[in-house]
Amino acid sequence: DDRITAPLAASAKDEEVLIIGSNSKLGLIVNELPLQVKEVVMAGNRHQEEKAAMCKKIRGDIRYTLVNEDVMDFDKLAELVEDIDHVIVLSDYSYDEETSDIRNMMLIMNLRELRIRHDQTFSITSEMRRDDNRVLVTGSESIDFIVSTNMSSMVLAQVALEPMLYDTFHELLSNEGSEFLLKEAGILENCVGVEKTVAELRRAAIHEDGILLGYITKEEGREKTYINPELSKEVTLKAEDKLIVIMKD
Questions:
Q1: What does the DSSP 8-state code read for residue 187?
Q2: What is the pLDDT of residues 37-92, one digit of tens each?
Q3: What sign for the dihedral angle of Cα 29, 32, 34, 37?
Q4: In what order do the strands lie in the sheet with 222-227?
């Protein structure tokens, strides 16, 4: 392993991120990671020199570890995720779209299998180059985020039509300011176990300096996500439910 070290700040919330793969977005992604991320492991047996050079130029508050392993090997992947909080899977643009997506789909399936097998809780964020392939692996797991590369084009198109949206996207997509977050339902005072309308839940979220976009609950043993539900909809939140909010972390 090739280790590039930087001073670490002590924190009770220190987190470790595993990044599998590499492309032109890698530096930007690392720079925009939350401040509690103090270690990044970059795994894969391609583009090692480019990754090593990049690590010397970006955030100095993070320790970088470069691992030259075949991430498609299930056993080696299991070792990599042992102490990981989050996994990011990037598309390799040196492959064609279909080959790149197939590799990522196999990785996502293996990561989910490892998470179940070893009772782990790491989240998975993966890039897919074709939107139809993204749909194939988008499941009910609320801690997985599968995004297609056309998302950046959609953001640019909206900003081109409505330039005033630039500041909004910058606030939400940069490492500073408010973020999209999943919060425990208990952050809303007197709202767990009590029937409330969505409008009442939104007012309660405002008191916590947040904007409620939706919630995730279990129905018949499966997680179900509600985005922008009707204001008149009556909801009884459970303690284990998650709220989708915009607020400062």
A1: G
A2: 899 999 988 888 888 888 888 888 999 999 998 999 999 999 999 989 999 999 98
A3: positive
A4: 179-184, 242-247, 211-219, 222-227
Element (H, E) at 235: strand 234-235
Phi, psi dihedral angles at 95 (to 5 degrees):
-95, 160
User: What is the spatial distance between Cα 153 and Cα 159, in angstroms, rounded to a whole number?
Assistant: 10
Sheet holding 63-67, edge to edge: 2-4, 63-67, 37-43, 15-20, 86-89, 123-128, 144-148
For residue 41, with 0-12 CB atoms within 10 Å meaning exposed, 13-18 middle and 19 or more buried, which class applies? buried
Question: If pLDDT is split at 50, 70 and 90, which confidence band does 174 have?
Answer: low
- Please check the confidence at residue 21 and state whether its pLDDT lies above 50: yes
Query: Identity (one letter) of the amino acid at 50?
Result: E
Q: Crossing angle of helices 166-173/150-161, nearest 10°?
A: 150
Rg (CA), the chain: 19
pTM for the model: 0.64
* Residues 6+ away with beta carbon under 8 Å from 182: 142, 143, 216, 242, 243, 244, 245
3-class DSSP assignment, residue 205: helix
Q: Concatenated DSSP letters for 120-185?
A: ---EEEEEESSHHHHHHH--S-TTEEEEETHHHHHHHHHHHH-GGGHHHHHHHHSSSS-EEEEEEG
Beta-ladder partners of 145: 125
